[in-house]
Amino acid sequence: MEFHNHYNPLPSRGKQSAIRLLNLEPGQTSDPIICQLGTVPLNEDEVARDHVTYDAVSYAWGLELPRHEITLGAWPVLVRDNLWQFLKQMRNSTEQAPLWIDALCIDQSNWDERASQVQVMDRIFRGARKTIVWLGEADDDGVTAMNLIRTIAEKPAQLTKLTEHVQYSLLKWSRRSYWSRTWVVQEFLLAREIVLECGSVQLNWRDIYKFLKILESSRITGGESNMWTAFRTTPAYLLILQRASHDNLRAPLSELLIRNQHTDCTLPHDKVFAVLGLLGDIERGRKIRVNYTGLQNLCTRACA
Fold first, then answer.
1. What are φ and ψ of residue 63, in 5° steps?
2. Which end of the chain has the least Cβ crowding within 10 Å, N or C?
3. Is 28 helix (H, G, I), strand (E, B) or coil?
4. What residues contact residue 194 under an 8 Å CB cut-off, 6+ apart?
5. What residues contact 221, with CB distance under 8 A and at least 6 apart?
């Protein structure tokens, strides 16, 4: 992401934090993407004051360099491909609320601001009306998998009638890069409500939960194929299961690190920082402060 120091500092009054929200202007496919930023306070009760409604976005940044230009306020900003695709898709939504998107709502060039916003990340996602889980652009496998989950949630008997192609599509979908990102664990588990989006195809948490329960029931009553055995080892299944069973909520840090050791992040600090909102009350009392300049001190505190 390329920035031009056009962010005004976020206000801070004692323990009260503030966040920026992004308003995405509507447009046609070929129109430039134009966004505006506004600032709102975040209360201690995890709800933005004056009942400000917003949706949080959970997605994978991607490893490629930013190359797509958008307008943020009065400034040109470059964004990576996955976020670009999301903004193009989302600006045509008829039910759009202000959005919280980390790459744009946090001044990524300001390490102090990044640290302070990461410290309240759990409150940001708890305070959102819903969390939009952006899995990326749609392809045939993604559409097939999303439709499959919805179909089985509505008609459980279809579970035994799946073709090999459909099963492969589900496996490929469950291994998309989103599911392996360390940051999405906290975002996915703390969300009030979840809507998965793969291109223009949507899937709500209710159908995902039903699908999971049907899958678990089929294993108990009649065994399962090798495909379903493989599916249970995928990052998507492991994360969905954690949300359905409320695992990882208020857990010890050591347990969180072990459970999510298969996930990926760019900075080693984030293995700890990305799960701070899931800590149990005792470890919350220790108050690990987000600081991107002291890896050795972080390791000492995390292991204490």
1. -100, -10
2. C
3. coil
4. 130, 131, 133, 188, 204, 205, 208, 243
5. none
Which run of H or of E encompasses 77? strand 75-79
Place of tokens 């402060």: 289
Token pair of 247 as six digits: 């695992």
> What is the mean pLDDT for each group of 10 consecutive residues in the chain (304 residues)?
67 79 88 93 59 91 93 93 95 80 95 92 93 96 95 90 89 96 95 95 95 81 69 93 78 86 88 89 65 62 51
User: d(Cα 109, Cα 9) in Å, to the nearest integer?
Assistant: 12
Please name the residue that has the structure tokens 């990524």: 108
DSSP-H helix ranges across 20-127: 81-90, 102-105, 111-119, 121-127
pTM: 0.89
Q: Which residues pair with 189 in a beta bridge?
A: none
Amino acid identity at 127: G
Q: How far is CA 87 from CA 11, 64, 66, 93, 101, in A?
A: 27, 17, 14, 10, 10
Residue 302 half-sphere exposure toward CB, CA atoms < 13 A: 23
